[in-house]
Write a structure and sequence with these properties.
With 321 residues, the chain is α+β, with helices and mostly antiparallel strands. Among the domains are: 40 residues; 70 residues, Ubiquitin-like (UB roll), CATH 3.10.20.90; 109 residues, Methane Monooxygenase Hydroxylase, Chain G, domain 1. Helices cover 63% and strands 10% of the residues. The chain is built from eight helices and seven strands. β3 and β4 form a beta hairpin. α4 packs parallel to α6 and α7 packs antiparallel against α8.
Length: 321
Amino acid sequence: MAWVMHRSSSDGGSSSGWSDAAAAVVAAAEERAGWEVRPSGMVVQARDDAAGSGGAPPRPPPPPEIKVRVKYGGARHEVSVSPIATFGQLKKLLAPRTGLQPADQQLSYRGRARGNAEYLDACGVKNKSKVALAEDPASVERRYIERQRNATAESANRAIGAVALEVDKLADQVTSIEKSISRGNKVPEVQITTLIELLMRHAVKLESIPAAGDSSSQKNIQTEACMRAGEAGAEVRGDAGRAQGVQRAAAGGGGDDQMGDVRRGGHHDEVGALRLRSVQCSRALQPRGYVYTCMVFYFLVSPGFIWCTLLNSRVVINHVR
C-alpha cells in the first residue's frame, strides 16, 4: 500500500485513478485471504495448516497405560493395558500367560463378572487395580462333556477294532476252507458251523457297542462285513454237505438201480444220502425179516392146526363109540 502511495506521488495527479484501482485490488485480496480457489474453480475457505489431512482437528495423544493386577488361582499376573481397552482385549493379553482361551475366561471386578464389551475405565479400573480371573463354568461343563464324548468314542473304536480283527481272521478261515473244498478236500462240517456261530456272536457284539458319529459308521461297516462272512460260511457249509453226499452216494452205489437213482438226485444230495442209508438198512434187515416171518407163522398157525387135529380126533372117537 505504501508502494502504491509512492508511485502516485512521483507521477503527480495524473495517476490518481490507477492508485484507486490498485487499492481496490489489494482490499479484495485481503478480503479473500481466508479463501482459496479449487482446481474446479470453486472458492472455498482456506484450510488451516495445523488441521489434519481430513480437515478435522488432530487427535489427542492416547492416555498412558495402566498396570492391572490379575489373580488366577494361586498365581498373580501384572498386565499393562490401555485404560480405554475392553475386558475382552484384556482376556487376549492374559491368554498366553494363563493358558486359557479368551472364551474360557471369566473376569470379575469389584465382585461382578464383566462382559467382553465393557471398558476398563467405564468400570472404574485404574492403575494397580485388582481383577479376578476364573474359568468360565459353562466352559468347564462344555469341556467335561467333550472329554466324556471323546472317551466314549475312543472306547467304542477300540472295541470295534478288536472285533474287526477277529472277524477278519474268521473270514480268512472261511476263504481258506472254501478253497480247500473247491480242490476236493474234505472239511468237517463241525468246523464250518463253529466259524459261522463265532461270526454271528461277533455281529451281536458289534450291535451292542454304543457308538455315535464316525464310530457308528465304522460299526455299521464292520457289522456288514461280519454278516457277509457269515453268509459265505453258510454257503461253504452247503457246498461241503453236497460234496459229502455225492461222495457217499458214489462210494455205496456199485451197479444197483436204486443207488443210481440216489446219485441222479444230485441237487438233493443230503436227501439222497438219507435215502441211501435207509436202503442199506432195509437190505441188511431182509434175511432177518424172512426168518422172523417164518417164526411168527409157525408160532401162530401151528397151535391152531394142532388144536384142530385134536378136536377132529375126539369127534371120530365119539362116533366110533
